[in-house]
Amino acid sequence: MVVHSQSAALDHCSLIKTCKPTTSVFKGIPVVDLRDPEAKTLIVKACEEYGFFKLVNHGVPMEFFTRLEAEALKFFNLPQSDKDKAGPPDPFGYGVKKIGSNGDVGWVEYLLLNTNPQITSPKSLTVFRETPEIFRSSAVNDYIQAVKRMTFEVVELMADGLKIEPRDALSRLLRDEKSDSCFRLNHYPPCPELQALGGRNLIGFGEHTDPQIISVLRSNNTSGLQIYLRDKTWVSVPPDQTSFFINVGDALQVMTNGRLRSVRHRVLAESMRSRVSMIYFGGPPLSEKIAPLASLMAKGEESLYEEFTWWEYKTSAYKSRLGDYRLGLFEKKTGGAAGQ
Predict the structure, then answer these.
(1) 89-139, pLDDT tens digit by residue?
(2) How many Cβ atoms from other residues are within 10 Å of residue 315's Cβ?
(3) Which residue, 79, 119, 200, 244, is most buried by CB atoms nearer than 10 A?
(4) Helix/strand/coil percent split, the chain, to 5
(5) 275 an active-site residue?
(6) Exposure of 140 by Cβ count < 10 A (0-12 exposed, 13-18 middle, 19+ buried)?
(7) Distance (Å, rounded) from C-alpha 277 to C-alpha 268?
(8) Where is the signal peptide (predicted)?
(9) What is the mean pLDDT of residues 173-182?
């Protein structure tokens, strides 16, 4: 995605959406210390109010961050013809600009990898086979395994805070050998030509919620991430390359019967600095039935959603556009489920 002239750049991004500048930096992002005795309470509160929080003192070595980021940048800085050998995504592998198969595009290139050792993705193998000296699988594996362990702890603390029984009701879905989890590396190249867009911001990755149970994001120290607050305003999240940002996903919204809400978010392109992000998406096995957890339901409380399998929801989500309210198709017609 290296572009050498302003006209070429604008040509290249002509189909990519823009939005009005948002100068509001949100300083109220909830911060949770994983070692805080009150972490379980703080996690639940943050997920109820925002569906989003920053996690510090998480125990994942900084070395894992820096090594993976360096290897990712080596890959993304390869000639386009070399990167294309790992694409197009199916859905795993390398993709550029095009997000999904339904017309969404963004100022982004990415690698999507499977985190399940039981499933081999030919495109994932291509990344490591074609560029073994550039993109070492150990950098990916070390990072993913550490993040998984941390995520299991986070969702078990969440279960404690919500008084979910058994305590591993959420973590067992992520630990399952058939867990449908994935890992994504995003690269948003700088776009110096942004000034020619009439003061508007270029969309790197369009607004959406994540379909899975939970998403665990780490990025470099470049801004761009924004979340949508309940007062219907977009705010920028201050970057922090040493911490994780945790998102509630659609599946978790259903499993808590709407008590926790998946957060709508997007990424904007920067004019001078590239942004690199790495996201672990924790998903259940494909055959898992998604419905409100019995231990969370008050006596006489009705489910806001029809029961569905993760395969059914995932299939539906990937047929939609990024910005669609995907859960709307699974809300019960009576019962007053809250849309987005």
Answers:
(1) 888 889 999 998 888 999 999 999 888 766 656 666 666 666 655 556 688
(2) 12
(3) 244
(4) 30, 25, 45
(5) yes
(6) buried
(7) 13
(8) none
(9) 95
Non-local (6+) Cβ contacts of 149 within 8 A are none
Selection from 311, 257, 306 nearest residue 288 by Cα:
311
- Token pair belonging to 235: 């705010």
User: Buried (b) or exposed (e) across 147-174, using 16+ Cβ within 10 A?
Assistant: bbebbbebbbbbbebbebeeeebbbbbb
Backbone angles phi, psi at 324, to 5 degrees: -65, 150
Weakest mean pLDDT among 15-19, 20-24, 130-134, 200-204:
130-134
Choosing from 218, 264, 266, 275, the catalytic residue is 275
- The structural domains of the chain, with segments of one domain joined by +, span 15-319
**CB-based contact 292:324 (threshold 8 Å):** no
Amino acid letter, residue 111: L
CB 92 within 8 A of CB 121: yes
* Residue 17 phi, psi (nearest 5): -70, 155
Q: What is the DSSP letter of 243?
A: S
3-state secondary structure 177-211: CCECCEEEEEEECCCHHHHHHCCCEEEEEEEECCC
Side-chain-facing half-sphere of 257: CA atoms under 13 Å: 15
What is the per-residue pLDDT across 272-282, written as a single tens digit (0 to 9) for each? 899 999 999 99
What is the SS3 string spanning 121-156?
A: CHHHHHHHHHCCCCCCHHHHHHHHHHHHHHHHHHHH
Q: Are strands 244-248 and 275-282 parallel, antiparallel or unpaired?
A: unpaired
Q: Rounded CA gap, 66 and 283, in Å?
A: 26
For the structural domain made of 15-319, what CATH number should be given?
2.60.120.330
Entry pTM: 0.91
